[in-house]
Amino acid sequence: MMQTEKLELTQEWDKTFPQDTRVDHEKVTFVNRYGVTLAADLYKPKGVQGKLPALAVSGPFGAVKEQASGLYAQEMATRGFLAIAFDPSFTGESGGQPRRVASPGINTEDFCAAVDYLSCRDDVDPERIGIIGICGFGGMAINAAALDPRIKATAAMTMYDMSRVTREGYFGSSDNKEARDEQRRAWAAQRTADYKAGEYTRAGGVVDPLPDDAP
């Protein structure tokens, strides 16, 4: 049996969208192959019997299941799907350390672990499982679909190319190769300085821990 991390899950309705009375809601957990316990909101159409088509939903990048992914999942439940919206590893109510970090490999695995969970539910048809990736997690969803033949349908709602933005900045604002190379040299020098000092600076301006008055 997989070791499940004990999570502190909020039981009251705490979403950014109203609850739909046509849909049953509950909290569930599952474990990925990295040993991280993931928290999810499960939405199921009321009064429906038998095995349902199912969806796993996550994103946008840095977001939690109480936001867009939960709204997508609840809406799909009104259309006859059993849907889960999950917090990725290290995010929201899901486990994993350090907090508020991202890994394309682990986040791709998060989708596959969600499919593991759905495939083993008695009320899910394992031959009709799909995934939805929103914004930055559209790429993670496509990665998972390329790896996992159990995923029969994939939708990615992605507004821009994250790799290109990382490389060139928004709308090509960092299209100067020499400037980008200089930035990489500065990051590398900072890593050396941090290691000598005995503590890494969190790259990208991430504040950890978050202040009490953070939005």
Automatic annotation (TrEMBL):
InterPro entries: AB_hydrolase_fold, Polyketide_trans_af380, Xaa-Pro-like_dom. The keyword ATP-binding does not apply. It holds the Pfam family Peptidase_S15. Residues 35-191 form the Xaa-Pro dipeptidyl-peptidase-like domain. GO terms for molecular function: hydrolase activity. The keyword Hydrolase applies. Gene3D superfamilies: alpha/beta hydrolase. This is Alpha/beta hydrolase. It comes from Tractidigestivibacter montrealensis.
